[in-house]
């Protein structure tokens, strides 16, 4: 299956941080003004003309990005909760940064003595493939998701907001 990955636009966490939201509460953050502009500009990408369907993470920043693409292209939009952001099982920005460093340092594995628990690369890939199995009948699928999930399928270490990356994945 051809996957056209899109990383969501730039989010604005300010209001949620001011109210001390943590964990999945942070996933309620909408796009920033710049993120909305990125998403609107993204809609001009000619690759979307070859797609059959648009599938998005249920996380607000991804869903808002997908909304712009769906409106501009007419692609039917499906929301998939399993396309959520990479999971770190302890809350707090310090724990997230520690987990991210450990994840990268250990090439996606979780060592038994890890001070922070997180979702492994294998678990993320499995979650994605399980989710996408229901779209097997489609030749080309646009997927709006998150950097850590996308990195399990594309070699890019840095994936910018609203960056588009094509790849073939055996589903």
TrEMBL record:
Coiled coil spans: none
GO molecular function: phosphatase activity
Source species, domain of life: Bacteria
Pfam families membership: His_Phos_1
InterPro entries: His_Pase_superF_clade-1, His_PPase_superfam, PGM_Phosphatase
A cellular component annotation (GO) from this entry: cytoplasm
Name of the protein this chain belongs to: Phosphoglycerate mutase family protein
Organism of origin: Streptococcus australis ATCC 700641
Organismal lineage: Bacteria, Bacillati, Bacillota, Bacilli, Lactobacillales
């Amino acid at each position: 299956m051809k996957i056209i990955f899109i990383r969501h636009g730039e989010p604005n966490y300010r209001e949620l941080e001011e109210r001390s939201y943590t964990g999945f509460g942070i996933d309620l953050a909408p796009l920033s003004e710049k993120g909305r502009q990125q998403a609107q500009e993204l809609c001009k990408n000619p690759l979307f003309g070859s797609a059959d369907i648009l599938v998005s993470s249920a996380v607000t920043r991804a869903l808002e990005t997908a909304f712009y693409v769906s409106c501009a292209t007419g692609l039917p939009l499906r929301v998939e909760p399993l396309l959520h952001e990479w999971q770190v099982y302890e809350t707090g920005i310090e724990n997230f940064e520690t987990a991210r460093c450990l994840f990268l340092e250990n090439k996606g594995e979780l060592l038994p003595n890890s001070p922070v628990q997180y979702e492994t690369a294998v678990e993320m890939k499995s979650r994605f493939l399980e989710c996408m199995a229901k779209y097997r009948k489609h030749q080309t699928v646009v997927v709006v998701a998150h950097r850590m999930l996308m990195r399990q399928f594309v070699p890019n270490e840095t994936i910018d907001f609203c960056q588009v990356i094509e790849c073939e994945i055996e589903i």
